Amino acid sequence: MAKGMILAAGQGTRVRPLTRDLPKPMVPILGKPVMEYLIEHLARHGITEIMVNVAWHHQKIEEYFGDGRRWGVQIGYAYEGVRDHGEILPRPMGSAGGMRRIQDFSGFFDETTLVLCGDALIDLDITAALAEHQAKGAMASVVAMDVPLVDVQNYGVVVAGADGRIASFQEKPKPAEAKSTLASTGIYIFEPAVIGFIPPGQVYDIGSQLFPDLVAHELPFYVQNRPFHWLDIGRVGDYWSVLQRVLSGEVADMTMPGREIKPGIWVGINTSIPWHQVNIEGPVYIGSSVRIEPGVSIVGPAWIGHGCHLRTGCKLVRSILFEYTRIAADMRINEMIVSPDYCVDRHGDTLYHDDDATQLRWGDARA
Question: Strand pairing of 362-364 and 325-327?
């Protein structure tokens, strides 16, 4: 069939503080790391040998996924780092450089390989994408998606001929300068020969370095324009938007945990909720061991992680509470991501619970 490669070595600086102590592929969606959905999706399409390059907080990924047997796959890890003054420090090799390093070590990429970023939710028909790649005799393929012209400045844009053969790329062009509206989704299909175009032992990027080289050599390099959901968590605001869409049921194969006790309201076990004294409008998920006091109002889409505590009179609107977050009485939390330590609005502005400049009051429900 094909092999898989998940790119997971990045630092995730654009989604801090979510990635302060967590690699971006481990950011939770409906209580599961985003990378877990990718592995499940690969397995559904028969891709069972998966390499993952790791660096920052790599232990979190490796300890959670192990050898992959829980998902019916085999997972291997390639740590990218250096020893500096007696310490082991992350030193990512770039998206392409990491692949060449794996190839030089073991020759793993000996058949068609699907490469994807570990920080996006997708429901791509992988089987169909692989079939198109093979039917065209492609050495490399880029899966792209049409975006509105006004949004091209947020993406790498693929410029191709009528037959889909790639002619060039534009990196985040202004709308007036864009030659295409096909945005690269960070999903690629490579034949083994592609790895030979990556120089060994160097930091090397797929999009900005490998792809222009493939175009220059006039190789069979194609774009695929496919309709599918692609929810990229590039910024903190994207994470908020992704959760809103997932909670609203827009993405296939995303099963809500818990039990649906009322239309659009899912609840875990061991909760304390005075149902006749609260107002809850779905879609809302309430995790296990959550305590909600009388007078609380929740307007979905909303996610309340396990162990949270909502005090009397507080109101939560289209927000996400990470595990063990306590919201003080009468507080208004509107379109925010809140953890015991910090609070981030949908635009990425961050507050910390000991910040005297804010009137919001929240904290750790375990304290």
Answer: antiparallel
Q: Phi then psi for 73, rounded to 5 degrees?
A: -130, 170
What pLDDT digit, counting tens, does each position of 97-151 carry?
999 999 999 999 999 999 999 988 899 999 999 999 999 999 999 999 999 999 8
C-alpha distance from residue 303 to each of 5, 281, 284, 286 (Å) = 31, 12, 6, 6
Q: In this structure, are residues 166 and 143 in contact, taking their beta carbons and an 8 Å threshold?
A: no
Q: Among candidates 49, 38, 75, which has minimal Cα distance to 253?
A: 38
- Among candidates 107, 119, 100, 106, which has minimal Cα distance to 204? 100
Distance linking the first and last C-alpha atoms of the chain: 51
Q: What are phi and psi of 27, to 5 degrees?
A: -60, 130
> Residue 286: how many CA atoms within 13 Å on its side-chain side?
28
- Model pTM greater than 0.85? yes
Return d(Cα 8, Cα 207) in angstroms, integer: 16
Q: Report the candidate in 285, 284, 291 with the shortest Cα–Cα distance to residue 270.
A: 291
The tens digit of pLDDT for each residue in 286-315 reads: 999 999 999 999 999 999 999 999 999 999
Q: Angle at the Cα of 68 (from 104 to 193), degrees rounded to 5?
A: 30
Structure tokens at 127: 């089987």
Contact predicate 67/75, CB 8 Å: yes
Residue with tokens 């609005």, as numbered in its chain: 345
Q: Pick the closest to residue 103 from 188, 198, 39, 189 (CA basis).
A: 198
